[in-house]
Amino acid sequence: MIWKYRKGLKKLSQSLRKKMTEAEKVLWLKIRRKQLKNCQFYRQRPLGKYIVDFFAPKAKIVIEVDGGQHYEKRGIKKDEIRDKYLRNLGLKVLRFSDKEVLKNIEGVIKRIYYEILPNPPL
């Protein structure tokens, strides 16, 4: 499937790749180059009208690493709208706090690994 996006987002996504947060950098080192279940991830990827932190097209997974603004009332509402939009594209959205990534990267990786499984056990 081809994932379309608004043309104006390409330059912004390229800029965001150069300005990744520390938590995004830590996670990227663990998931890039098909290290996780041979699954290709892309960083700061435009999807529709948004740019997502990480995207695995084969697994149809979006990963968001959230800073403090995502836990304020306005941020929560924006994320709900964004997640609904992405789910309507057939994608699963995984959200982790930046603190969780920095303090428990192995737990984060295990969760992502589990979500990539073709038929996860119930």
Give a quick rundown of the structure.
The protein has 122 residues and is of the alpha+beta class. It is 44% helix and 20% strand.
Task: Supply the key terms.
about 20% strand; Endonuclease, Chain A; alpha+beta; four-stranded mixed beta sheet; about 120 residues
Gyration radius, to the nearest Å? Answer: 14 Å
- Gap from first CA to last CA: 28 Å
What is the name of the CATH topology? Answer: Endonuclease, Chain A
What is the number of domains?
Answer: 1
Which structural category do the helix and sheet elements fall into? alpha+beta
CATH-defined superfamily: VSR Endonuclease
Count of extended strands:
4
> How large is the share of residues in beta strands?
15-25%
What form results from the Cα inertia axes?
A: globular
Question: What is the top-level CATH class?
Answer: Alpha Beta
Instruction: Describe the main β-sheet briefly.
Output: 4 strands, mixed
Written as H for each helix and E for each strand, in order along the chain, the element string is HHEEEHEHH
Q: Count every helix, treating DSSP H or I runs of 4 or more residues as helices.
A: 5
Please give the share of residues in helix.
40-55%
CATH architecture descriptor = 3-Layer(aba) Sandwich
Mean pLDDT: 88
Low-confidence stretches: none
Q: Strand order of the main beta sheet, please?
A: 1-2-3-4
Explain what you see.
This protein is of the alpha+beta class. It is built from 5 helices and 4 strands, in the order ααβββαβαα. The chain is globular. The model has no long low-confidence stretch (mean pLDDT 88).
